[in-house]
Design goal:
alpha/beta
């Protein structure tokens, strides 16, 4: 039996196993095929649980590929073969040695191996094959280099995607070996029975032409894929906020908390009747250590002279990275982000909108960490009072906050009497507040494995808590393989396009359950969540409002808050707004806006007139 094989283009040698199995017996092919297919499916279905297998697979494959490069004879120059053969071996050994200690090195290793494979393919394209083979080999090499570079931009999703790609590739290779082994076994049985087997004949001219056309088509597809990936990368990266030099502190800082460091212009849109500036100031974190924070100060363009009452606006969740500061975004000083802003300015009140520490300014962001949120908010008001203009702030202050900001608002009023006794906080409006982090975690983690957004939100909580409290180790709640991915999620803001990457990554992790949700409300984490539950005392009026259709925070948590406030004897009034969801409760034509203004005006002016609203407020006497 004779056969003739056409000269084939060189394949990317991520694994040299195909060459080693070229002459293996059929039974070996079948057995190896089954094992490799099973390994591939395991990597696809459980990418995190299989990262060790993936790392070993990549490392060994690279070493074997390097050995084959050194011992094989092809048209490629000897020096080129030796360089890339040694590179494969060194890269494979590095993966095996360091992967077990630092799982975050795997994306780096995959990136480097992609680039090495791409350069090796480019070298082959110069010296081997027909025109169509060279074009495909060159394009394939360039694609590998491009994707190797791109993979460093999004390391978390790269890790999962490469795991899945490796898994699919491995499974297909295993199935191919299985089919080949079965075919050879049938051929062997046919020979034993004396049957003849048709020789493989060289492909016809038409077949060679169609093969060339196919190679050109695949080349065009690869070029389009690379171009599309680069364009997508530019779009995602272009939407990320840029932290300008305003937020970098000078070497010499004023002593004490609530001290103004500098003021600056705000680059975003301003309200029709207000001027917006940014401030950088000193504060303290939840542990009482010195920290930095930034804020927006919105002043009315036209107002009567004299001290201006202050509204402290505590923003909801935007992310936990520095770039997620509202003072960096374009539309966060408008009525669509701050409720009733134009009416507030018309009253002659000043709005101080803190970013909290760790957003904008460097530091750890106190996500649902009450003391950190409250102190940075109080200090924003103190620092705004030091602005060197004709602006004079009245000590009369009312605190508003939404979602995370509702939690922050309650803590701002709670810490103010001792932390800044000069402030006269008249009341607190907590709108859809995340007031009880421990109870919220208990409710929400039941479906965490199926909820990508919840995985992101838990990352927002776990990473700042682990960086704030010495008794919380992130590794106790997150698997070692998932830890670098979870940390990467916290580097993106909810408003930037790159959050899509976090969502895709979270979906890819859903089957692996990277976060141990069962332990979030017990042990050190449970204790810290409980101590960050707003507990008062407040002693000043509190308004709680939430949407009956809130899809983010269960309305039952607000009902529990009101019940606790009433039981503690606090002066609380509340309202459930039936048409509203979590976010639209802040925006026109929400009934919250006139209610909030009338309630605040009463506090600012000591107006004894009962509130007359289309939505009468409930209180503890009902």
């Amino acid at each position: 039996m004779t056969s003739t094989r056409p000269h084939a283009p060189r394949r990317m040698r991520w694994s040299a196993l195909p060459g080693l199995l070229e002459k293996a017996p059929p039974r070996v092919l079948v057995l190896v095929g089954v094992l490799i297919a099973a390994l591939g499916l395991l990597i696809v279905v459980r990418p995190l649980a299989s990262l060790v297998l993936l790392g070993v697979y990549v490392g060994l494959s690279a070493i074997v590929a390097g050995v084959v490069e050194l011992i094989s004879r092809r048209g490629t120059p000897g020096w080129w073969t030796r360089i890339f053969g040694i590179a494969w071996i060194v890269g494979g050994i590095a993966v095996l040695i360091w992967f077990g200690r630092n799982v975050e090195l795997l994306p780096v290793a995959l990136s480097v191996l992609l680039i090495i494979g791409g350069l090796a393919s480019l070298g082959d394209a110069v010296v081997r094959g027909s025109v169509s083979v060279r074009v495909l080999t060159a394009v394939w090499g360039g694609a590998q280099v491009a994707f190797g570079v791109l993979s460093r931009t999004w390391p978390d999703v790269t890790l999962l995607l490469v795991a899945v790609v490796f898994g699919v590739r491995t499974a297909v290779f295993g199935l191919t070996l299985l089919a080949r082994g079965a075919r050879l076994a049938r051929a062997a049985r046919a020979l034993r029975r004396g049957q003849t087997i048709r020789d493989r004949r060289p492909p016809s001219r038409a077949a060679r032409i169609w093969a060339a056309v196919g190679r050109y088509a695949v080349s065009l597809l690869l070029v389009g894929l690379v171009a599309g990936s680069w364009g997508l990368n530019q779009w995602l990266a272009g939407g990320a906020p840029v932290i300008d030099g305003f937020y970098s502190p000078p070497a010499d800082l004023p002593s004490g908390h609530g001290r103004l460091i500098r003021t600056g212009d705000y680059a975003g849109r301003s309200p029709a009747n207000g001027d917006v500036s940014r401030i950088l100031y000193t504060t303290q974190d939840a542990n009482g250590r010195p920290a930095l924070a930034s804020a927006m100060v919105i002043t009315p363009i036209e107002s009567e002279p004299g001290p201006h009452p202050v509204i402290v606006w505590e923003h909801g969740t935007t992310g936990v990275a520095r770039g997620c500061a509202p003072s960096l975004a374009d539309g966060t000083a408008t009525k669509w982000a701050i409720p009733a802003l134009e009416q507030v300015l018309a009253e002659g009140w000043v709005v101080v909108a803190p970013d909290y520490s760790g957003q904008g300014a460097p530091g750890v962001f106190p996500y649902l960490i009450g003391e950190g949120e409250g102190r940075s908010s109080v200090d924003a008001v103190l620092a705004a009072g030091e602005i060197d203009t004709d602006l004079v702030l009245s000590p009369r202050t009312v605190v508003w906050g939404h979602s995370q900001g509702g939690h922050a608002a309650l803590f701002t009023t709670q810490v103010a009497p001792e932390y800044a006794p000069g402030l006269d906080i008249r009341g607190t409006a907590a709108i859809s507040p995340a007031a009880d982090p421990r109870a919220l975690a208990d409710i929400l983690t039941a479906g965490a494995q199926d909820n990508a957004l919840l995985t992101i939100m838990m990352a927002f909580v776990l990473v700042p808590y682990s960086e704030t409290y010495d008794d919380i180790d992130l590794g106790q709640y997150v698997s070692s393989a998932a830890e670098p991915i979870i940390r990467e999620m916290t580097q993106r803001c909810l408003s930037e396009p790159g959050v899509v990457i976090s969502a895709l990554t979270a979906l890819g992790l859903s089957e692996d359950q990277p976060i141990d949700t069962g332990d979030l409300t017990t042990g050190a984490m449970g204790r810290r969540l409980a101590e960050n539950t707003a507990s008062g005392p407040w002693g000043t009026p509190i308004l709680v409002a939430w949407g009956a259709q809130d899809e983010v925070l269960p309305p039952s948590t607000q009902e529990d808050l009101v019940e606790r406030l009433c039981a503690a004897g606090e002066r609380v009034r509340w309202q459930v707004l039936a048409p509203n969801h979590h976010q639209d409760i802040l925006q026109p034509p929400s009934q919250l806006l006139p209610m909030l203004m009338r309630w605040t005006r009463t506090l600012m002016t000591d107006d004894p007139t009962p509130l007359q609203l289309s939505y009468p407020l409930d209180d503890c006497t009902r």
